[in-house]
Structures are given as structure tokens and as C-alpha cells.
Design brief:
- There is one protein chain.
- By secondary structure, the chain is mainly α.
- It is 57% helix and 8% strand.
- Strand 2 (67-70) and strand 3 (74-77) form a beta hairpin.
- It is elongated.
Length: 129
């Protein structure tokens, strides 16, 4: 069982999409430090991806320090060194795309921040979270 879902996006490498979904699960707390992470075989089966692709995902997450592969024990979620910066990195591409679009239509930084704030409050409700 894999504790995250994947919504396939055409044109984006599947390994990147699976890694992104795993990172979201880690940074959101769905996967906590010490939790078991799926093996290559289990990840491949659950996500319906080739074992080489699953290995690439696990290697990437391990290289980023998000999981630890412990021989004889398994693969575990690691304690992220800087969870806040990791969350920001997850959205870097989306933020850049939004910023470029705002600049193209002549929006100021203040207008963009206001628009994001309004959307945040509308979606989050009264408490703002």
C-alpha cells in the first residue's frame, strides 16, 4: 500500500510525478519520519510503473535525504533536514509559472500577493489555514 496518490500529467516524466507525490506526502505529514516507505517492487506495482522507474524515484528521494534505504531493514522515511525549504521547492515551478504569467499581464507584485491572499482565504475558510 502506497500512502500517496498520483494524478498523471502528460508531458511530465512519470518518475518526477511519483517523486513529487511522495514528497508531498512527506512534507504534509502523511508519511512521518520512521514510517516504512514502499520497496522498489511495491512502489512499481502500486503506481503501475516499471521497476527501473521506481528505483529512480527511490534513488532521488534518498539522494535528497527524504528516505533512508537500510539493508536488511527496509526503506524508511527520514527526518527532513529543512522541511520548510523542501515545501517551497515543491512549488517552485508553479510559483515561477504564476509569476511569469502575472508579469506578462502587467500585474504588480502587490497585486499578485493580494490575489494569492484572497484565493488563500477563500479556499481555507475563516481560520486561514
Amino acid at each position: 500500500m502506497v500512502p500517496f496518490r498520483l494524478v498523471v500529467q502528460p508531458g511530465v516524466p512519470i518518475a518526477d510525478q511519483v517523486a513529487f507525490a511522495a514528497k508531498k506526502a512527506i512534507f504534509s505529514g502523511k508519511l512521518r519520519p520512521g514510517d516504512a516507505f514502499p520497496s522498489v517492487r511495491a512502489l512499481g506495482r502500486a503506481m503501475k510503473i516499471h521497476a527501473n522507474t521506481a528505483q529512480k524515484v527511490i534513488s532521488q528521494l534518498a539522494a535528497e535525504g527524504l528516505i533512508e534505504v537500510l539493508p536488511g531493514i527496509g526503506t524508511l522515511v527520514a527526518q527532513p533536514a529543512a522541511p520548510r525549504s523542501g515545501r517551497s521547492r515543491l512549488l517552485a515551478g508553479d510559483v515561477e509559472q504564476l509569476t511569469v504569467q502575472a508579469m506578462q499581464i502587467g500585474m504588480s507584485l502587490e497585486e499578485l500577493q493580494s490575489a494569492v491572499g484572497e484565493c488563500w482565504h477563500r479556499l481555507a475558510g475563516k481560520d486561514g489555514r
